[in-house]
Amino acid sequence: MTYARLQRVLLVAIAVAAGVAAAPGLKEARAAEWPARPVTLVVPFSAGGSLDRMARGLAPYLSKELGQPVTVVNRPGAGGQVGTSWFLQQPDDGYNLLVTAAIPYLPTNILVTGAKYTLEDFAFINAQWSDYTMLAVHKDKPYKTARDLIEAIKANPGKLSTGVTFGSAGQISTMILLEALGIPANAVRIVTYDGGGPLRTALAGGHLDFSVVQAEGSETIRDFVRPLAVFREQRAKEWDAPPINEALKWSGVSVPVLSGSIRVLATAAGFRKKQPQAFERLAAAHKRALENRELQGWLAANKIDGDWVGPERTTAVINANFEILKKYRHLLKK
């Protein structure tokens, strides 16, 4: 080998070695830069619903903590499955975050509608808002109690209508209630909506006879509805209605009280795995945003929770609820 050729080989070897040595440092630098550009909150439901309002309330405060613009994009369809699938198809670099009702929509999409994702595809940051459900009617409907409504359904099979968002806690609770009372599902006209906003608009407009809706999320239609029962073990201070099993005593049946909607901020699992420091930075930014007094004031005024639970506890709660929902998947039929 000539001296010139040997020199060229050595230079190539040095360059390769330098590149390998620099790679870890380069990765660290990229992680330290996150976020280097705007961040998007993906809401897989319609504008105007509870998740949309939560995301839009959080966005400016999260933006302040991250030092980058944060915008909200709605991608509704198929009970959240369309937007969630789109989210997971994006690069797992933390620039698209998911705001969704991890319970019950993720389990129902996985267990019932054959979603091509699993819970392990997500890294949950925080369960900011957990909401219970309630049985409600339009204020001008003649039903004053749950018994009035149930007897009307039995006396007029196929005549009364209800609204559901497929895979929601409201749909699950409705199906469980009908099954417990021995009422076939086709005894009620079920209208499906792509989000809580359109459903509540229909209920508030008197286009539905009744619905099981998220209680706190229905503050915006308080003046138009009458609560007949809350799906809780005890009465709720927000709505003047008995717990569901108290309201059902006359019938001799009871129903399990399921957790309502658990609304979370999440990333793709790959982001946490590949950039753990950036994931922790995001979690800390969310926590600081929720500690902002101005945001807490806005959340309180809009009846939206601003809890900090953290990634580990949030993940544990979601996994536990997933196991419970497995037991009721036979009731979730589109």
Number of distinct beta strands:
10
Using the coordinates above, name the CATH class of the largest domain: Alpha Beta
**What number of domains?**
2
Secondary-structure arrangement, i.e. CATH architecture of the largest domain: 3-Layer(aba) Sandwich
Largest sheet: 5 strands, mixed
**Helicity range of the residues?**
40-55%
- Poorly predicted regions are 9-18
Report the portion of residues in β strands. Answer: 15-25%
Lateral strand order in the biggest sheet: 2-1-3-10-4
Order of helices and strands: HEHEHEHEEHEHEHEEHEHHHH
CATH homology superfamily name of the largest domain: Bordetella uptake gene, domain 1
How would you describe the shape?
Answer: globular
Main structural class: alpha/beta
Overall pLDDT: 89
Helical element count? 12
Radius of gyration: 24 Å
Distance between the termini: 74 Å
In CATH terms, what is the fold-level topology of the largest domain?
D-Maltodextrin-Binding Protein, domain 2
